[in-house]
Amino acid sequence: MRNRFDRQLEMLNQMLIHMGELCETAIEEVTGALEENDMGRAKAVITADEEIDQMEKDIENLCLKLLLQQQPVARDLRQISAALKMITDMERIGDQTADIADIVTSAEFNGDENLKDIGRMAEATMKMVRNSVSAYVQKDLELARKVMDADDVVDELFDRIKKELVDTIAEQKGCGGDTAIDLIMITKYLERIGDHATNIAEWVEFSITGIHAGNVRI
């Protein structure tokens, strides 16, 4: 019975890795669509969100099966509970990449000087997502905490880009007010993706230590 349970836990790990990869790809693709003004690529990101949504349902079903059909010990219970929380954040990451893609399909950003910084911000969030899922699978507490620390970098980029774009709106220069507002929305979505990756890392910490930042204990 335990061998079967362990195999199902390994399946859970693989499914989480795949869902994390889908989120990473969505961020990468929507960033490319933004930088290249590629409407087709942006629309593909919106469509791909459906697969992330389906992964959330599949993983949730597996977790509930493990909880109902097995008798997990405290460590296993933390792992399964953390996975249920993590997939909610990953599903939201998929939604936010689709929201960015929706903006890209209705505007043009060619040559805007803020795109390089936005690209760096997107790269940082991709790394956070990748490392948070890796930390869960590898039970790596140090890596999870590095993800939490990395959120400060994303927040700093967001604050800097937002200030520059607000100045653009005030002065009506460069890309103009409407485009600047769209870019602020995009950077806000990226900042939220960083927050979701941080949430995932906090649940990884919980799965390993039994202690969550919100003082949840099992």
Can you give a write-up of this model?
With 218 residues, the chain is mostly helical. It has helices at 2-36, 39-69, 74-104, 115-138, 141-171, 177-209. The radius of gyration is 19 Å and the shape is elongated.
Instruction: Give me the count of strands.
Output: 0
Strand content: under 5%
Low-confidence stretches: none
Net shape: elongated
Order of secondary-structure elements:
HHHHHH
Global Rg: 19 Å
What labels would you give this structure?
218 residues; 6 helices; mainly alpha; 0% strand; elongated
Secondary structure elements and their pairing?
Layout: H1 2-36, H2 39-69, H3 74-104, H4 115-138, H5 141-171, H6 177-209
Compact description:
The chain is mainly alpha-helical and 218 residues long. It contains 6 helices and no strands. Helix 4 (115-138) packs antiparallel against helix 5 and helix 4 packs parallel to helix 6 (177-209).
